[in-house]
Specification:
about 280 residues, alpha+beta, single chain, 11 strands
């Protein structure tokens, strides 16, 4: 009886650890990715100004740009150009709407990018926001929630199951190792190779931009995870407990892969010197 109670509490502990690791990885991946807004605070002419500049815009229409600047004597200018190009910057004056300076970036086709910055001026003094590098934003199509939510959910659960299966392999290989391995692979396939390509299609017009057709890092890291878990499943089915180290390796690889910032080296249009799309 005591042994059965210990087994249940041990399994629960593994789930708690898996949830913590998965949440940490998901938050880290999201907040360090190239589509997470750039935010900060500057002080200009005695006015403290907080900003948050978006690095992704979905759907039709231009991308709004706004900044709260209570001092009405401060003027704002929006500089932008296609990315990656060396074309001249386009300059547009931001409109004053109460405490807000507002403007917009022209709509681009899916995977098109624009780099931009805001210049604040008062008299002969000016400051750039951000102070150093310009912000790069990427445009994408509208992804229906009916596609996006299942994709995010299944990928999160795949990561959770992967971690839980790795703990099972390390500390309780006589448990439900084969079952957890099957479930991990199933959720990874649904989230990454059924729902994932649908998200990619709606957002950027292509079902798959990873190997062998391209070098999209999101697609390629998902492919690496799939290969790892297929090998792990084969090892467990053929060797039983002896194959558990392949499961541990697949779990570690999955964690490492999903710590890579989301959307890094994602789909991107290329332009010629005239600003025409060449991809």
């Amino acid at each position: 009886m005591a042994r059965h109670s210990f087994s249940i509490s041990k399994g629960l502990l593994f789930w708690i650890i898996a949830v913590i690791i998965t949440l940490f990885a998901a938050i880290y991946q999201r907040t360090t990715g190239p589509t997470y807004p750039v935010s900060g605070t500057v002080t200009f002419q005695g006015t403290r100004i907080s900003y948050e500049l978006e690095r992704s815009h979905g759907g039709a229409g231009d991308q709004p740009v706004q900044l709260t600047v209570p001092d009405t004597s401060i003027l704002g200018i929006l500089d932008y150009r296609l990315y990656p190009t060396q074309e001249p910057w386009t300059t547009k004056k931001l409109k004053r709407e109460g405490a807000q300076l507002v403007g917009s970036l022209p709509h681009q086709p899916p995977a098109g990018k624009i780099e931009y910055r805001i210049i604040l001026k008062k008299g002969n003094t000016q400051i750039g926001i951000p102070k150093k590098e310009a912000v790069v934003t990427r445009f994408k199509g509208t992804v229906p929630l009916g596609v996006l939510i299942p994709h995010v959910l299944f990928m999160f659960l795949a990561m959770l199951l992967s971690t839980r299966t790795g703990l099972e392999a390390l500390f309780r290989p006589e448990g439900k190792l084969k079952t957890y391995t099957y479930w991990t692979l199933a959720f990874l396939i649904i989230g990454g190779f059924i729902m994932g390509p649908l998200v990619q299609k709606f957002a950027f017009g292509a079902l798959w931009t990873g190997a062998p057709f391209g070098w999209d890092l999101t697609d390629n890291k998902t492919l690496i995870a799939l290969v790892g878990w297929i090998i792990a499943l084969i090892a467990v089915v053929k060797k039983g407990r002896a194959g558990r180290w392949w499961v541990v390796l697949a779990s570690v690889v999955m964690i490492a892969i999903f710590l890579i910032p989301h959307s890094m080296h994602g789909s991107e249009l290329k332009y010629d010197k005239a600003g025409n799309v060449i991809r």
